[in-house]
């Protein structure tokens, strides 16, 4: 009887924590910033999943990834690489831009 209860407890704990482990995995994608040009300009991500964006500045000037909606900003020197981690998003569209090159079009993160 004790082994049955122990097995039952382990099963219940596994069912509770397994989805949390899966949800904690980050969806990773890459963004290239080059003197105001964003490649790709539209990033599609799964909703309700943490997102990790690897940013590369391939330009000759500093860039700043910024999203006021997501409350994120990251400055990169020419040739630098960095990462921005975004908490799980509700379905929708979120704008980001290069704050040092505002004359260029903004990018968009689409969570679906």
Automatic annotation (TrEMBL):
Gene3D superfamilies: Cupredoxins - blue copper proteins. It comes from the Bacteria. Pfam families: Cupredoxin_1. Residues 8-111 form the EfeO-type cupredoxin-like domain. This is EfeO-type cupredoxin-like domain-containing protein. It comes from Xenorhabdus ehlersii.
């Amino acid at each position: 009887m004790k082994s049955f209860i122990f097995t039952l407890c382990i099963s219940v704990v596994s069912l509770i924590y397994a989805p949390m482990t899966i949800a904690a995995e980050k969806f990773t994608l890459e963004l290239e910033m080059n003197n105001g040009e964003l490649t790709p300009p539209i990033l599609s991500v799964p909703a309700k999943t943490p997102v990790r964006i690897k940013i590369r500045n391939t330009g000759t000037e500093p860039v700043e990834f910024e999203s006021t909606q997501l409350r994120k900003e990251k400055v990169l020197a020419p040739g630098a690489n960095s990462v921005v981690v975004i908490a799980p998003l509700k379905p929708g569209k979120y704008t980001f831009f290069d704050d040092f090159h505002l004359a260029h079009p903004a990018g968009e993160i689409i969570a679906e």
